[in-house]
Automatic annotation (TrEMBL):
GO molecular function, one term: phosphatase activity
UniProt-listed SUPFAM superfamilies: Phosphoglycerate mutase-like
Transmembrane region(s): none
Name of protein: Histidine phosphatase family protein
One Pfam family it belongs to: His_Phos_1
Species of the source: Solemya pervernicosa gill symbiont
Length: 203
């Protein structure tokens, strides 16, 4: 008789980077002092994880490395968990883009699937690499409790996948700095049954 195995994955967004709020994408800005404080306060001394997996960008990986070292938890980097590439919008604020061409930004907000920023990664390509990383985690670490340190876009994509939302609705999910969401996946034979336990909560 087959037994059910449950995998728990906590998704954590990085704190505020140097330079504040903007379409940062894959620019490798480090955490600001506020960002470090946000992430340390969100976790405190709580460390129930069997392992930590992080985006390779420094605003995620540096905190993940500190946390792993402090608690003796194995850690690895996965570049597939990086934020979506925003192309020519990277480093720009929404206010700057609105002042330059408000219609382009409005079209992206209303229909991001068909209005990719110039030179940016498409939502379909972003979905494929993030969900490939997600499935790899479930296959490699079934039955374990993981912390995945990443980005707002990455978290939206995973949660959209778990909740079976349409791809173009993912930006309706708000993810705060240092926000944490928990997903549990029950594995039974060849089937997997994911569920969102909480979103943007504290541990």
């Amino acid at each position: 008789m087959s037994e059910m195995v449950t995998t728990t994955i906590d998704l954590m967004r990085h704190g505020e980077p140097v330079g504040g709020r903007r379409y940062r994408g894959q620019i490798d800005d480090p955490l600001s002092e506020k960002g470090w404080r946000q992430m340390r306060e969100a976790v405190a001394d709580h460390a129930p994880w069997d392992r930590i997996v992080s985006s390779s960008l420094s605003r995620c990986s540096e905190f993940a490395a500190e946390l792993a070292s402090r608690h003796g938890i194995p850690m690895k980097l996965d570049p597939r968990l990086m934020e979506i590439g925003f192309g020519e919008w990277e480093g720009r604020t929404a206010a700057e883009l609105m002042a330059e061409d408000s219609e382009t930004l409005n079209r992206f907000w209303s229909d991001p699937l068909n209005n990719t920023p110039p030179g940016a990664e498409t939502l379909a390509d972003f979905r494929d690499r993030v969900i490939a990383a997600w499935e790899s985690l479930l296959n490699s670490y079934a039955g374990q409790h993981l912390l995945v340190v990443g980005h707002a876009g990455m978290m939206r994509m995973v949660l959209r996948h778990v909740l079976d939302m349409p791809l173009d609705r993912m930006f309706r999910l708000q993810v705060p700095s240092a926000g944490i969401s928990r997903v549990q996946v029950d594995h039974f034979d060849a089937e997997s049954f994911p569920r969102l336990i909480f979103h943007a909560g504290q541990l």
